[in-house]
Amino acid sequence: MGVRLALAIGGLILAALPASAQTRWPNGAKAAVVLTYDDALESHLANAIPALDAAGLKGTFFLANVKEADVDRWRRAAMSGHELANHTMFHPCTHDVYPADPRYVSEAYTPASMLREIAQMNVLLHALDGKDRHGMATPCGQSLAGGVDYLEELRKAGTVTYVRGVADAPSSARADVSKTDPMRVPSRPFDVGATAEKMIAYVREAEQGGGWAVFLFHGVGGDYTVLSDGEHRKFVAWLAQHRGEVWVTTLQEALDWAKAHPGK
Ligand SMILES: [Zn+2]
Question: How far is the CA of 181 from the centre of ligand 1 (A)?
Answer without folding.
Answer: 21
